[in-house]
Design brief:
Strand content of chain A: under 5%
Number of domains of chain B: 1
CATH class of the domain at 63-222 and 241-266 in chain A: Mainly Alpha
Shape of chain B: globular
Helix content of chain B: over 70%
Structural class of chain A: mainly alpha
Largest sheet of chain B: 2 strands, antiparallel
Number of helices of chain B: 14
Strand order of the largest sheet of chain B: 1-2
Structural class of chain B: mainly alpha
Largest interface: A-B, 92 and 86 residues
CATH architecture of chain B: Orthogonal Bundle
Oligomer: heterodimer
Chain lengths: ~270, ~290
């Protein structure tokens, strides 16, 4: 390889500095709030004095447990629906190259280009004024799915483009019906992508504020509790809440990372 | 029997069976509600109830009265500025990962995308602890005996920093995905033919990745334009944006029809941005192939 000239080295050095600064910008607040959550003094916590008081206070907050349960329900509901629709659609689009399937791809990606708050208020207005449905967990799940399905679709599509459909054709040549082919051939091969999409859409539904807020009426969820706390001036319990949620999200993302590795191996693609 | 079997194997039927449920769901629960607020925007509200009395007064108010128009223009300016900053900052980062990331590409990209999933409210809470009056930056300055930085405490600048913090991952991801599929050997060709690095960038790399970049701009512009939590909790007394006015119509004001009109205006403004960028994608492509002829 030719020697890198000083100009190019200078450019790469500058880009590296920018990227490192970006990571610092993105992660420092997250770690700092984790640090604050175990500090007795939250205003200027130096030198550190440790305490578990904020976590104790969070645990006895009456809304916290209900909110956690509701957020998990919304997350699981959103993830189940999104993954189901996205998996079926991705398989359909990749396996049957129908003309004009581009229109369907655009439809499945359209939610990405609609502001969340518009999804929130339009579903609220439609449910309230046309269908006469009051805000509840179910309508929050439906509205969240209309948004998260795009992410699930992208995650699955990105990994399934590398899948070799000849496996399925072989199974069908040997007489397997479509559903059995899916259960015994397709799914065992693509499950990491499906689980990855489930986790991503779970996190999106679990953490969503703008869509959920307009659709759950007064039912507490973790993001709406956080919103209420922020409105009345910050309480240290919120740091504890944020730290728990952040830790959960990063744990799930680490699982996704492992799944992508497993998925890449399963689909027969050499690691980069 | 033969007929049934043929129907069963028709790829179009299978395609429809697989794609149909999801497509129908999106139409029913995304597109139809959006269309319903278009209808409501031509109605009026009387004591918290919608009345189907067709009129255009809501649009006259939103586009004609300075109190609404001012916020609309301010939100558009904020979204444009934040998108521009994200664009300029994310490009070199995405380029570095795509070109020199090697086997760590995936980890490096996932690391930038991960914070997005921790949720808007908790990220803004974290930002408040950095930028606010008792945030780390200003407390540290005061501990050191310096003056706190006023512009970071509940101002539109703080809002912009918060919005960049929230949405820059989308820009980086879009540009990265474009560069991931870009053939870097084209740059070698340009170099062999005597192009300086900057010229090669502006005549090869940039136009060929403009579509991915344009998608990144849209993905940042739309949520920034529609931001409500960030200006509310970081923007301070003068931080209010168009969407905060919109939320007011759905909250205590209860003027649903006016709020719907504001939503439609927002949607149309976003569509105009998408349309304009889409046109440039086509023009650039035509220009690029034309240059080679």
């Amino acid at each position: 390889m030719a020697a890198v000239n000083p100009g190019a080295r200078f450019v790469i050095g500058g880009q590296t500095a920018m990227l490192l600064a970006l990571y610092l910008f993105l992660y420092f607040p997250i770690f700092y709030i984790g640090y604050l959550s175990i500090m007795e003094n939250n205003v200027w916590p130096f030198p550190p004095v440790f305490t578990g008081e904020w976590y104790d206070r969070l645990m006895i907050m009456s809304d916290f447990h209900v909110g956690l349960l509701n957020s998990v329900l919304i997350g699981v509901g959103t993830a189940s629906l999104s993954t189901l629709f996205a998996t079926a659609a991705a398989i359909g689009i990749l396996r049957y190259p129908i003309r004009r399937r581009g229109v369907i791809v655009v439809l499945f990606l359209a939610p990405l280009f609609v502001a969340q708050i518009l999804i929130g208020i339009s579903t609220l207005m439609f449910n309230r004024n046309v269908l006469g449905i009051p805000g509840n967990i179910e309508s929050a799940i439906v509205a969240n799915t209309a948004y998260s399905v795009s992410f699930a679709f992208l995650v699955i599509l990105a990994q399934l483009v590398r899948y070799d459909w000849r496996f399925d054709e072989v199974a069908q040549v040997f007489g397997a019906r479509p559903f059995r082919t899916f259960r015994e051939v397709t799914f065992p091969n693509i499950w990491p992508a499906v689980l990855g999409a489930f986790i991503i859409s779970f996190i999106l539904g679990f953490n969503n504020f703008e869509i959920t807020f307009y659709n759950v009426a007064a039912i507490p969820t973790l993001p709406t509790i956080a919103w209420g706390t922020l409105r009345h001036g910050i309480e240290p319990e919120l740091y504890a809440l944020a730290t728990i949620v952040n830790a959960l999200v990063f744990l799930l993302l680490f699982i996704i990372y492992l799944l992508i590795r497993v998925g890449a191996l399963r689909l027969g693609v050499p690691e980069e | 029997m033969r007929g049934r079997r043929a129907l069963h194997l028709d790829p179009r039927v299978r395609f429809a069976t697989l794609v149909g449920p999801g497509a129908l769901f999106i139409v029913l629960f995304l597109l139809i509600p959006l269309l319903s607020i278009v209808v409501f925007s031509f109605w009026r509200t009387e004591s918290y109830e919608l009345i189907s009395d067709w009129n255009v007064n809501n649009y006259e108010a939103v586009l004609g009265e300075w109190i609404y128009l001012k916020f609309l223009l301010k939100s558009l300016a904020m979204a444009a500025a934040v998108s521009a900053i994200c664009l300029v900052y994310a490009w070199p980062c995405a380029y570095l990962i795509a070109k020199h990331g090697g086997r760590y590409k995936l980890v490096l990209v996932l690391l930038t995308a991960a914070p997005f999933l921790t949720g808007i409210l908790l990220r803004i809470t974290a930002m408040q602890q950095i930028l606010g009056p008792i945030g780390l930056v200003n407390m540290a300055l005061m501990e050191l005996g310096a003056q706190p930085i006023q512009v970071l405490m509940y101002t539109n600048i703080a809002s912009a920093v918060g919005l960049i913090y929230l949405w820059i991952p989308f820009m980086l991801l879009a540009i990265y995905l474009s560069l991931f599929n870009f053939n870097f050997e084209l740059l070698e060709v340009a170099k062999v033919n005597g192009a300086r690095p900057w010229r090669a960038f502006f005549e090869v790399t940039w136009p060929l990745n403009w579509m991915g970049t344009a998608i990144g701009i849209v993905l940042v512009f739309i949520p920034t334009f529609a931001a409500s939590v960030t200006p509310r909790f970081l923007g301070g007394p003068n931080g209010s944006m168009f969407v905060n006015r919109l939320e007011h119509q759905f909250g205590s004001a209860g003027t649903w029809a006016l709020g719907s009109a504001m939503g439609v205006v927002m949607c149309v403004a976003s569509l105009v941005v998408i349309f304009v960028l889409w046109r440039t994608v086509r023009l650039r492509r035509a220009g690029f192939t034309g240059a080679g002829a």
